[in-house]
Amino acid sequence: MKSENSQKPHDRMAAWLASDMEAVNTLIRTRMASEHAPRIPEVTAHLVDAGGKRLRPMLTLAAAHLCGYEGPYHIHLAATVEFIHTATLLHDDVVDESGQRRGRPTANLLWDNKSSVLVGDYLFSRSFQLMVETGSLRVLDILSNASATIAEGEVLQLTASQDLATTEAVYLQVVRGKTAALFSAATEVGGVIAGAPDAQVRALYDYGDALGIAFQIVDDLLDMQGDPGATGKNIGDDFRERKLTMPLIKAVARADTEERAFWQRTIERGKQEDGDLDHAIALLHKHNALIDTAAEARRWAAKAREALAPLPDHDIKGMLSDLADYVVERIR
């Protein structure tokens, strides 16, 4: 059996929050039910039961505990965050025409695109019902803004991902939308529901924002150099889908004329041939794009750790700090 110190930070956090997470899972199962449309719980259960880490709802619970909350509504908010996350996954897999997620067939493959989109819509609606039940307009404001930002980030990615003029600033805007917005909302509402001082709520927002950015940069990096067995993705999926992630943006910015023509053919025009992925990876190594992207991820993880400074001393605070380290340890 592993000692506490040898466990991964999210596993330690899951153990600390076990009773809360059980309540969250019960609430999720109750609210994903549908009397009239049995396909809704079928599709939802396929994703919810797929063995994800439940990181986002745990962040909400952790933030509430860190700020001394003793009421019931952190459970509602954690379930809300998980429903929003699950809804975006259902929609993303349709947009990306994905066939696999977390090593399993996607809902759109097992059922169809219409079911995935409509069940995603249902979960968004359920999430709003849950957040309204907290009776906090501020919570509703934060999570509804996050939902809009997520959708905005996905639409921005549609136009930016295949445009070689896309800069790292635009990439970060996409990442803040598609990933960091829900991380920061998850931590922020935990502080808000606890009635924490504004400085602490801001610190929780900053932590979630930086953690979410680090998390996505690492995901994009692992797409080009990760272990498919660990990531559940094939190497180069983003390249094949013509997504300009940070490593590719760095390589394009440093490309000579011949290399730029390669990126124009494979990314902008989508004419990919055998051997192109290997050549793309070679160019990333040539221009130190992978090394420099890893450094960016570590910088954002450090920002997340530093953001925790104004928050009270607590076991959970140490776990949140360790979590920021763990996110970037995946690229060693």
Automatic annotation (TrEMBL):
It comes from the Bacteria. CDD domains: Trans_IPPS_HT. It holds the Pfam family polyprenyl_synt. GO terms for molecular function: all-trans-octaprenyl-diphosphate synthase activity; metal ion binding. PROSITE patterns: POLYPRENYL_SYNTHASE_1, POLYPRENYL_SYNTHASE_2. Keywords: Magnesium, Metal-binding, Transferase. InterPro entries: Isoprenoid_synthase_dom_sf, Polyprenyl_synt, Polyprenyl_synt_CS. The keyword Transferase applies. It catalyses: 5 isopentenyl diphosphate + (2E,6E)-farnesyl diphosphate = all-trans-octaprenyl diphosphate + 5 diphosphate. Its cofactor is Mg(2+). One of its GO terms (biological process) is isoprenoid biosynthetic process. It is an enzyme of class 2 (transferase). Its EC number is 2.5.1.90. Coiled coil: none annotated. Supplies octaprenyl diphosphate, the precursor for the side chain of the isoprenoid quinones ubiquinone and menaquinone. Belongs to the FPP/GGPP synthase family. This is Octaprenyl diphosphate synthase.
